[in-house]
Amino acid sequence: MSEKIKLAVDCDDTIISYSQEYLAYLGMKVGRNYNIADFKTTQWPLHAGLTKDVFDSHVRDFFHTDDYLKLPPIPGARDSLLKLKELYELHVVTARPDFVIEHTQNSINLFFPNVFSDIHYTNTVTPKPGAIVRSKSDICKHIGAFTIIEDNPGEALNFVNNGYIHRKAYLLLSTPWAVEASLKKLHDRVYPMRTWENVEVALLSER
User: Fold this and answer.
1) What pLDDT is recorded for position 2?
2) Which domains does the chain have, with CATH numbers?
């Protein structure tokens, strides 16, 4: 039997809901009523009307709340990933910091048991001093993944632009910033996908 092709999968807002819950928490903390639909780009501090330092400090605090521990899965992700697992070796590649490793592993094991071969952390979101920060593109190169499923258009573009010419990204339109970015052609190898079922069909058709 031939070796399975490795497939990278983002975590937050791709398989685990995050931004909706974080904005509810942030609004409570700063006394504002945020609507995620107003966040049309990934410049989240700008949309929130906060400095990056203040925004990031609330992100770090959110990591230690009960709400963070109860983040739900994205609809359709589990069913599609179970089917993709039969033909692909699946790896989570997340921007989360490594000090939330235990919680992340618990969430993945709860919602996606025996689906992923490994979880990789870039430490690009609020890393602790001295933490090793890596790009998703570099991690994917290291593990040999040539396709990524992602909700962040910037990450998708960085992935296809920094590696082999046959790299491609599936942009899951699960967030307003992904939908907004999809209104114009991002790249020949970035494919917008409205649902996980669309992702599943596209990837299964390649095997």
Assistant:
1) 66
2) 5-16+73-204 (3.40.50.1000), 19-69 (no CATH)
